[in-house]
Each structure stands twice: as structure tokens, then as C-alpha cells.
Amino acid sequence: MPDVRFFLQPSVSVIPLAAPNWTFRHGQMRCRTKVHSGTHWRQPLILGGLATYGVKNITKDCCTPDAKTSEQSGTYDPAAAHQLHIAQSLAVTPAGEALTENLRAEMMEIPGGVFEMGARRSSFPSDLDSPRRKVRVSPFLLAPTTVTNSQFDRFTRETGYRTVAEREGWSFVFHLLLGAELGRWPDSPPDLPWWRKVHGASWSAPEGPGSDVVSRPDHPVVHVTWYDALAYARWSGLRLPREAEWEFAARGGLKNKKFPWGDELMPGGRHAMNTFQGAFPHRNSGDDGWIGTAPADAFVPNGYGLYNMTGNVWEWVQDYFGALPVAGLLPAQDPAGPEDGYARVQRGGSYLCHVSYCDRYHVHSRTQNDPDSSAGNCGFRVAADL
What we know:
Strand order of the largest sheet: 16-15-13-17
Distance between the termini: 14 Å
Low-confidence stretches: 1-62, 67-73
Strand content: 15-25%
Mean pLDDT: 84
Largest sheet: 4 strands, mixed
Radius of gyration: 19 Å
């Protein structure tokens, strides 16, 4: 069963979101009213759909959109929204031991050990991904791919679960994926015209009405929030990986490398992951073979047999966003992130990462997003204890 120790009592307050309270700061749209105590501002999700209240913040130097406000009342109560979404996730009935054992049998055994987590120097200081620090991870199991459309379809059919984007009725879609329908969806977040608010966009209709996933059952499920990932984990009897586990696994046994295969962006002159090629955001050449998502098992797996640990889709992990484990004389043992917070961590980058816009397709790359945020480039994979 997923660990829900910190999910039920977030220390957040009601936030008025009248238009005058919004401003741009360090390339991000922020609310001047702070959340929690201290300096946590309402964060924008990286490149994707909103989930619950109507208007998302967006991280401009990143790759996915985030927090919603109430279109009707003009206020947003994150604590109430959190309680609602958690209740719906935990209301899912677990499938049972037979399914869990079948899924475990398909997972890769990650040996565990000590590694240096994070980057030597951060390209985005707000990501808090540097400097490196030693961390020890116990052996665990991790799915070789992100959860696919076919897997998520089975989950929704057996449980009747509806994602946050489905309940709210819309999500954000990257403009180049809308084709002839682009003019139908003119609404965009401030200063981000490449993201379009599409009514009817969800995991089963990634580009909105008229689209489906029938021809891409093996692609990663997208337009899922952290709460949706939690619901799937509860049903499957598995859990989300902790951030330290995810990074240890992504490195595939290599030491201090940028990518799951080494330091070259294109080893041997060949694409090794699905990112954005061309001139972002206006032209994607698709030189790696894909304009949107690629199959979850595309490209060569890393040393632990894991596919697409960088590129393709951002992956939700268990942890609240915060500083990496404190560096010390002894490696931190199985760190689980901050004990409380609001924003959750996403790892790995996506098909929209580009050196000029969101250079976060490295094994150490991380970002933060509100747990009720969905997007056309956000997915997840599951883990389990040994």
C-alpha cells in the first residue's frame, strides 16, 4: 500500500487569487500571497494540463503548467482540494495479490548501493539539484517502463477511476500536437502561447476531442496528476519510487554521468532518447523519430534494463519537493525527501525538453509541480520493496 503518512494534513492556507495578486518573478508566474510558512510560492507545473480550479501557473524555463484557481469564486483552497483528491485516490479498491505479484514479476531488481546524487553545478539553481552528495539506497524493484496507456486503461476499467483532468474537464496540450484544431483552442497561460487549454483533453484523449490512444497502447499514459499516480499505485499494490531510488536507478550503475548511457548527448551520433529537435517551440523536426511521446520501451535500456529514464515524459515520484539530503560524513540512508510540503518532485525531462528551453533531460534533473497538475508530457512508473 502506498505510504500516505504525509498526505493527510498539509499545512497550507486559503490563497486569494485575484488578478492583481499575480506577478512574474525569475521567469515564473507567481502569486504574491505565499503558501505554507516561509518562502514557498504557488508553483507552476512544467508544460501541461491543469487539474482543478481553472488557471495554472507556468514555469517558463521548464516544461509543464500548474496550480489552478477557482474561476467562479476567485479563491483557491489547496488544503480542501488536497483532501478531496487524496480521498478519491485512496477510495480505489486494490486489485489483489495476484495482480501485484504479476506486476512485480515484470519489474527490474535494482541492487542498491552508494552513489553521488545530484549535479556538480546546477543549470537551474531553483531546482536545488546541486552540489552532489553521497546517498545509500537499499535494493528495490522498479518497473522497466512508465505506466502505459493499455495498463492505465485496465486500471480505469476495473476501478471506474476518473483522473483529475477528466473530473475537471480540461488540460493543457502542446500547440504543435493540435494540428488543424489549433485555432479552436486559443486560450494559453500568460506568455506561453505554445500551451493551449483544451477542453476534453485527458489521458484517453491526449490532444482533446477526437483523439484517442487506440493506436498507441504502448506509449506512456499522460495527463496524469500525482494523485492519479497514487490511485494507480494503490490499485496495483505497488508504490511510487522515492526520488533517490529513481536517480540511482536512472544512472544504471554508471558513476557521475549525465545520461543513463554516459556523457554524450548522442552516443555514436545516434539519438538515445526522445526530446525536442529543431527550433523550440515552433518547429520540431522529429529527428529522433517522434514528435510527441514515443513507445515506453523505445530506445536502448540502461544498465539496469530501464527504458526512457530521460526524455519522453516527466515522471512523478513520491517525494515532496525540497533540498536534496544534507551532505555528511556518512551517506544518507534511503532518504524520502521532506516530511511535509505541497509541490511534488518530477524527474527525467520529456519530449519537450530542448537545450534552449528546458535543458532538464539528465539523470540528475528534477523539477517541482503541484500534485493536482496534469500535462501532455507527464507520466509515472511504479516501484516496490524487495
